[in-house]
Specification:
The protein is α/β, with parallel strands linked by helices. Helix content is 40%, strand content 19%. It folds into 2 domains: 8-204, Alpha-Beta Complex (inorganic pyrophosphatase (n-terminal core)); 210-337, Diaminopimelate Epimerase, Chain A, domain 1, CATH 3.10.310.30. The chain has helices spanning 8-19, 33-49, 105-111, 140-151, 157-170, 181-192, 197-204, 210-221, 240-246, 256-261, 292-298, 316-337, and strands at residues 22-26, 54-59, 78-80, 90-94, 114-119, 130-133, 224-228, 231-238, 268-274, 279-286, 302-303, 307-313. The longest helix has 22 residues, at 316-337. The structure holds manganese (II) ion.
Length: 339
């Protein structure tokens, strides 16, 4: 192993990894390709560097790995955090800004001997012993790829596939505003290391069940576009009953916001999904420079400037009543400011 060659924060995390014998890693609740890919990529690289360390891969929720992400090398190693009773020497939180976002793994965070974070979300406060946070990074996987290069570990095809999936999914297949040169550079190195973009796309985007596509049809049919002075808002929704009737699970619904996003001439997009506990999950996207994370924040959520979310206590109609006026104001103000 060569000399560690990275930032001070990366060096600190590398030191924590070095000192730990047992390590647990978790990403955020309702995990996506970046949360799971970052955890698996990092953990398996640590095992490559230090074969004697014990790495556990935790799921924040009591749910299986989403179907389209089960192809990730190592996915079968995830265990629910609620069933993990050990106290690891080190807990590493990936793709999550604070311990409240890792659901059942929050307890592991607070009992672990030491804590480290790799993340690209804005955070109000840091509570871990060492943090590598870059809110400009397109995906947490980009940060981890950089960290791994600094360690000199060999990125094998399995690790490369995990990290590449994080980048592909968080950039919307390199279509979102965050698809920058650093994301492409990371992706190029990962493909050179053995990640296969076609294989990833086949699993993530071309393996849908007909049930999901029927729900997608419903969401398309309901699409609404509201013109606002100088711009427009598009939205659609699916109730919990819609999901049940179509036979679709909530973790399959991540792509539905992209239907709304695909409408031309729209500045901001909203997709609402009813949850099993009678609440509404809202996803917001900005197609311009407008900051939707502020609107998500007002509703108790958060996220990035161009991609944010919140959970609303009430019906879909009530949620629309709360969000749409805020989005109208955002678009109208942006228009005045020349955004
Ligand atoms: Mn992410």
């Amino acid at each position: 192993m060569g000399e560690f060659n990275g930032s001070a924060a990366c060096a600190r995390i590398f030191e924590l990894i070095n000192q730990a014998q047992t390590i647990a890693i978790s990403g955020h609740t309702s995990p996506d390709g970046d949360a799971l890919g970052s955890a698996l990529g990092l953990g398996q690289a640590i095992e490559g560097l230090f074969p004697n360390k014990r790495v556990s891969f935790l799921l924040a929720d009591d749910a299986e790995v989403p179907r389209v992400l089960r192809f990730l090398p190592g996915a079968e190693r995830f265990e629910p955090a609620s069933a993990y009773t050990a106290t690891p020497d080190l807990f590493i939180m990936v793709d999550s800004p604070h311990p409240g976002r890792v659901n059942h793994a929050e307890d592991v965070f607070y009992r672990a001997g030491a804590t480290a974070v790799f993340d690209h979300h804005p955070a109000a406060a840091e509570v871990a012993d060492a943090v590598v946070r870059d809110t400009r990074a397109a995906a947490c996987a980009v940060i981890i790829e950089k960290f791994l290069r600094a360690t000199g570990v060999e990125i094998d095809p399995a690790i490369a596939t995990c990290l590449m999936t994080g980048i592909v999914t968080d950039t919307g297949r390199f279509q979102y505003q965050n698809a920058d040169a650093a994301a492409f550079a990371s992706a190029a190195r990962l493909v050179a290391a053995g990640a296969d973009p076609a294989w990833i796309a086949l699993n993530v985007y071309q393996s849908q069940r007909p049930e999901y596509l029927r729900l997608k049809g419903l969401v398309m049919k309901r699409l609404m576009v509201c013109p606002v002075e100088g711009g427009a808002i598009a939205y659609s929704f699916a109730t919990h009953e819609d999901l049940e009737r179509c036979g679709v699970s909530p973790d399959e619904c991540d792509g539905l916001i992209d239907i709304v996003r695909s409408v031309g001439g729209v500045d901001v997009c909203l997709f609402l999904r009813g949850t099993a506990d009678g609440r509404v999950r809202g996803n917001l996207r900005s197609k311009s420079a407008l900051d939707v994370s502020a609107v998500a924040g007002e509703l108790g959520g958060g996220g990035h400037v161009a991609a944010a979310g919140f959970t609303f206590a009430g019906t879909v109609d009530e949620a629309l009543g709360a969000v749409l006026p805020r989005l109208r104001a955002l678009v109208a103000e942006g228009e005045q400011a020349g955004a």
